[in-house]
Amino acid sequence: xxxxxxxxxxxxxxxxxxxxxxxxxxxxxxxxxxxxxxxxxxxxxxxxxxxxxxxxxxxxxxxxxxxxxxxxxxxxxxxxxxxxxxxxxxxxxxxxxxxxxxxxxxxxxxxxxxxxxxxxxxxxxxxxxxxxxxxxxxxxxxxxxxxxxxxxxxxxxxxxxxxxxxxxxxxxxxxxxxxxxxxxxxxxxxxxxxxxxxxxxxxxxxxxxxxxxxxxxxxxxxxxxxxxxxxxxxxxxxxxxxxxxxxxxxxxxxxxxxxxxxxxxxxxxxxxxxxxxxxxxxxxxxxxxxxxxxxxxxxxxxxxxxxxxxxxxxxxxxxxxxxxxxxxxxxxxxxxxxxxxxxxxxxxxxxxxxxxxxxxxxxxxxxxxxxxxxxxxxxxxxxxxxxxxxxxxxxxxxxxxxxxxxxxxxxxxxxxxxxxxxxxxxxxxxxxxxxxxxxxxxxxxxxxxxxxxxxxxxxxxxxxxxxxxxxxxxxxxxxxxxxxxxxxxxxxxxxxxxxxxxxx
Length: 504
Known about the structure:
It is a single chain. The chain is α/β, with parallel strands linked by helices. The relative contact order is 0.05. It folds into 4 domains: about 5-125, Response regulator (Rossmann fold); about 140-280, Alpha-Beta Plaits; about 290-390; about 400-500, Homeodomain-like (Arc Repressor Mutant, subunit A), CATH 1.10.10. The chain contains 24 helices and 10 strands. Strand 9 (about 240), helix 11 and strand 10 (about 275) form a beta-alpha-beta unit. Residues about 130-140 and about 150-160 have low confidence and may be disordered. Keywords: Cytoplasm, DNA-binding, Phosphoprotein, Transcription, Transcription regulation, Two-component regulatory system. Its main location: cytoplasm. This is Stage 0 sporulation protein A homolog. It is found in: Cytoplasm.
């Protein structure tokens, strides 16, 4: 290097500061120790005065610790690089400090001159020591906002952008951001892109970064980001990264495309960085078969209902036809449908209905597709448990009540709905329940009872076939004969002849 690297040592232990000063012949390695400080406050004053390139700072100090110092340094002197010194027990502090632009760290108990020199050489290699402002330029946030404003873009797209971004290649990336982690995320991006020219801004909860590259392509750019991802403590951040583009006039179009794709980032749980080319802009949105779903639900086959829904979710993930907001609204509609239908089936699911607000909140809070599906699985498990508990209670009385009703009313022209209304249960539930309990359709059971009653009446020679038909609940004589033959294997007339000897 043509110019010496200026190094400032910050540590509250005088012995360590002296040890570092005389650790080696610094100037032989193109390094000049320009000063020492015993705490962060003192160091901030020296930074202003001495203009160091690198600060070697202890993480635990009185008055102002290394984390607080790093935070202020990033705000006031982002061009200065920082290397942290720590003990084995202080890594949580070190991790915190990385949010504020720290380049690397060394453990005090294992500090060796060769390791320290290697690290300083690495940091030096990432810097232009001939310039005081190594990384970022001021007032670029407003420039990027103007570039993304279609009413102002033509005014500022040429010379102002060329001044701060002279290279021919551009990459745009976006992610959602909120106040709770804004500071940490921005700090991480500054750390990750410390060797790349970029400008940034925040517009309506979107964090937008425009990078300017000379020889990079998307893969190398992503590799740079992924190399630094271990320092990112946030586990629910997805950046959508555009392809390389060379014409700044296409910036607004690309920005709009990325905004649309942000709504589909939740399909990519394992990826912090998602290439625009990996995502489906217009995925096929296959309609959910709600009629089949309700039919299965009316039959109380909860496992089949759940499987139908989960299979649909797999199709949704494959096609990416829904954005995050639309899929969450679909899930809420499914829950409304489950509550309404099971209530009409006669189940008391007030516990689930009361919990609806919390469930909807969990749906809205779901960051990734898998979390959303898990919420729906839990809804099915809770609903199934509630229904099973009530089915067990109902099983002890419903069957006998149905049998009693048919025995009492077989001579009347009643329907399954009449039985359901009398027992205060849903028609669909009654039909499915009876079939599950007896392996026989309820209509078939009623007809069998009527046929057995008809057999007894047919022995009375005074009654005509039509009269017998009416006495067992059939309003049409021909239909009675058809049903009787189905279950008695002969017509009513043949049965009477066989029983009383007519025609002999």
